[in-house]
């Protein structure tokens, strides 16, 4: 009996330790987007830090996948390489990965502190992943330009998913979240990680070995050096706008449209009924 129990325990541990690729066998991703290799240089003029040296492959997005995980979602983001110049516990620390998620119409159009704006919709959830951990932000927590809340008025705290579990598989970051399963719009960006900044991203400009050098006169350039897009183009960096990937299933506009049609139909029906009513009955009803 003890031998059987021991075998059962070993089989259970083996199942837990099985790689995610084996557990996902037989399933299909809800979304898969490939990104061109060798385009982790912003608009083409940025130079990466030399001390510590950051390899361009460590910032180079190669693919982004969204997988179902029961009632939740798992993100798989592949890079050209994973590098750990700051000896982070997660095994990578060259890049900061930002994933903005639009779960419904509307939302925030400013992509946090990346000096980029959305093109085609807005986001409700922002997930920032570094080798030191991952954290969620809700769009309602994003600072509004030129708007200061009264000091005695605390904004309501939005419900955020728990911190996700992040692990590496080769050159891929696997992020298991408790974001409810659905078809959403995504904006994904890769920036140089900086342990010296509050946000964890290295803003281009400046001098010295640990700096993203840009040509003189290039001010307020986007922070990321690579953004998720199926075609390599400097347009997001030149215009400061990033288009989403994925498809947002938000039925509320259609519902409002249907309610509007229903209202028009009821009004038309009432008008027709009134028109068909004999004139004497109408006078009596109005009297």
TrEMBL record:
SUPFAM superfamilies: CBD9-like (SSF49344). Coiled coil: none annotated. Residues 32-51, 144-169 are annotated as: Disordered. It holds the Pfam family Glucodextran_C. The chain crosses the membrane at residues 254-275. Residues 1-22 form the signal peptide. Residues 31-135 form the Glucodextranase-like C-terminal domain. InterPro entries: Glucodextran_C. Keywords: Membrane, Signal, Transmembrane, Transmembrane helix. This is Glucodextranase-like C-terminal domain-containing protein. It comes from Deinococcus proteolyticus (strain ATCC 35074 / DSM 20540 / JCM 6276 / NBRC 101906 / NCIMB 13154 / VKM Ac-1939 / CCM 2703 / MRP).
């Amino acid at each position: 009996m003890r031998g059987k129990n021991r075998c059962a325990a070993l089989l259970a541990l083996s199942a837990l330790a099985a790689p995610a690729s084996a557990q996902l066998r037989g399933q299909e991703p809800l979304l898969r987007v490939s990104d061109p290799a060798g385009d982790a240089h912003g608009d083409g003029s940025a130079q990466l830090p030399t001390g510590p040296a950051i390899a361009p492959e460590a910032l180079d997005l190669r693919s982004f996948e969204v997988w179902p995980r029961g009632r939740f979602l798992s993100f798989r983001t592949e890079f050209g390489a994973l590098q750990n110049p700051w000896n982070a516990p997660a095994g990578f620390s060259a890049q900061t990965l930002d994933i903005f998620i639009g779960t419904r119409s509307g939302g925030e159009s400013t992509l946090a502190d990346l000096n980029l704006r959305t093109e085609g919709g807005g986001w409700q959830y922002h997930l920032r992943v570094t080798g030191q951990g991952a954290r969620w932000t809700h769009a309602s927590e994003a600072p509004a330009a030129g708007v200061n809340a009264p000091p005695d008025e605390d904004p309501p705290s939005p419900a955020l998913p728990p911190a996700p579990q992040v692990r590496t598989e080769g050159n891929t970051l696997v992020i298991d979240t408790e974001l409810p399963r659905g078809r959403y719009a995504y904006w994904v960006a890769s920036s140089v990680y900086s342990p010296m900044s509050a946000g964890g991203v290295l803003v281009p400009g400046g001098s010295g070995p640990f700096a993203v050098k840009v040509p003189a006169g290039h001010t307020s350039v986007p922070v990321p050096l690579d953004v998720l897009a199926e075609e390599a183009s400097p347009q997001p960096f030149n215009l400061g706008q990033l288009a989403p990937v994925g498809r947002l299933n938000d039925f509320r506009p259609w519902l409002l449209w249907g309610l509007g049609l229903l209202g028009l139909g009821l009004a038309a029906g009432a008008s027709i009924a009134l028109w068909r009513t004999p004139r004497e009955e109408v006078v009596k009803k109005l009297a």
